[in-house]
Amino acid sequence: MEALEAIASRRSIRRYAQKPVPESDIATLIEAARLAPSARNGQTLRLVVARRDKGLVRSLFELTSWGGAVKPRRSPSWGVDAPTAFIAVSAPRDSSTHVRTDAGAALENMSIAAGVRGVGSCWRGAFDDNEAARILGLASDREVLYLLAVGYPAENPVAEPSNGKTTYYLDADDRLHVPKLTAAVAAEWR
Ligand SMILES: Cc1cc2nc3c(=O)[nH]c(=O)nc-3n(C[C@H](O)[C@H](O)[C@H](O)COP(=O)(O)O)c2cc1C
User: Fold this and answer.
1) Which end of the chain, N or C, is less packed with Cβ atoms under 10 Å?
2) Residue 111 CA: which ligand 1 atom is closest?
């Protein structure tokens, strides 16, 4: 698959089949994260995979908030359509803003690597990071920047071109549509 095809076909998934993703596939995501660029090649991020310990997966799940623009219609329920794993991305507390950018690169790499394997994912920015650090037992000098929800998709969202609107929405068939600004809006050539 060409890189742009993999990028274009990635969508945030908020409904998951209740079948665990094999550890070998999640290991590929970790490879994708560790090979991501980082400012000054600092590589200060660390990952925790929550998959084997269902209690841990559930505790992280309960911290998360889903699909604000279509709430509650993309708020998964535990045991029904919740993700089957999370990858937590942590960094030293009070890192420079570059480290959050490093996390973005790692998360995007993981999302793309997941998508080409038919594995769904969704970035989690809205959660109580102190509580996540406590649940994960992180050292006090580290913080959780993001969680990546992981699992097999049980929905099929679609991207569509937009000249301005960016709010995602559900259609009459309960399919999620994600407007993406056209190249003409997003970029200018000089
Ligand atoms: C930094 C960041 C934080 C996000 N946090 C959440 C979140 O807390 N809950 C959620 O449902 N989606 C979250 N998302 C997913 C976005 O809503 C999603 O990327 C956006 O709607 C575009 O859809 P797409 O990923 O399918 O292109 C987050 C995405 C990013 C990049």
Assistant:
1) C
2) 25
Cβ of 184 below 6 Å from ligand 1 = no
Same domain for 149 and 161:
no
My answer on whether 28 and 40 are in the same domain is yes
Query: Is the pLDDT at 15 greater than 90, yes or no?
Result: yes
**Average per-residue pLDDT for the chain:** 97
Distance 148 CA to ligand 1 centre (A): 10
For ligand 1, is residue 168 a contact (CB within 6 Å)? yes
Q: What is the DSSP letter of 117?
A: T
Range of the domain at 164: 157-190
Nearest alpha carbon, ligand 1 atom 14: 123
Distant-in-sequence, close-in-space partners of 53: CB < 8 Å, separation ≥ 6:
none
Under 8 Å between Cβ of 39 and 98: yes
